[in-house]
């Protein structure tokens, strides 16, 4: 019996791995064993898009994917011109020496038609589409749930929920077109499954909760095409989004830090490993899951 069971339904593109590699090396002394674990995380020559990629978690994630070897990462965000952080990151990636590049496009994730069109243009140019990270999102200031204005609620859901769907669709349509599978990562939040004690952001929580179910639902439909869909749910991380709170109410840093077992808030770079894992073949059997990276906040 092979280590995979009586019937081999699939094999790793870089196999043999693990026990199988050990058995083959045992049987054939001319094979020189070498570590392969990091090869499984490699994104060599792959192409994808990151929404919200002008700054914060989106841009941090784009750099990680570039370091993992992706050929091109198309970053979509609202400003006509990219930020100075983006420009510095683009230059940095260009100097990594692994043929990776960051591209910037001013795109609004609320515009479904335009996103589909842009992704198709990318597909036409690159002739492949492998990963997508839907990271664009907004957080409005706390408003009492019984007073929450209709328009404000719609505004948040339009970006955080509809925009995430439109981004995933744009990429997924190209993945389907090229027929080689793909990985779609929807950035949700721990706020999709827990509620912050002092910040009951009813619109944000609702919008993120919908993303968790969106990932599961899309995963179930797209599994047959080997397009994997997972959500990634960060806890408190210092970015411009949370700076709006932390910089104006300094006591919140200590408070938020005390809400998880690690006793601190997270850094944007702490998304690098998990997102590379999700985008790569290292997570090839993971779909329909919500990966919570919160310093353990949700465990208490
Ligand atoms: N920072 C945290 O603590 C935290 C925690 C959990 C989840 N998240 C989620 O992570 C994602 C990234 O957040 P961040 O912390 O980097 O915040 P951020 O505000 O720095 O980045 C969000 C980006 O999304 C872009 N964006 C907003 N509306 C858009 C639209 N209509 N079209 C295109 N782009 C748009 C913004 O311009 C911005 O660049 C968000 O979805 C956020 O909800 C953040």
Descriptive account of the structure:
The chain is of the alpha/beta class. The protein has a single domain (38-293), classed as Rossmann fold. It is 41% helix and 13% strand. The chain contains 10 helices and 7 strands. It has helices at 18-27, 37-40, 56-67, 84-94, 112-126, 150-178, 202-222, 240-246, 251-257, 272-279; strands at residues 47-51, 72-77, 101-106, 131-134, 182-187, 227-234, 290-293. A 7-stranded parallel sheet has the order 3-2-1-4-5-6-7, sandwiched between helices. Helix 4 links the parallel strand 2 (72-77) and strand 3. Helix 3 runs parallel beside helix 4 (84-94) and helix 5 runs parallel beside helix 6 (150-178). Nicotinamide-adenine-dinucleotide (NAD) binds at residues 51-52, 54-58, 76-78, 108-110, 135-138, 159, 163, 187, 189, 234, 236-237, 239-242. The site of nicotinamide-adenine-dinucleotide has 28 residues, from helix 3, strand 2, helix 6 and helix 8.
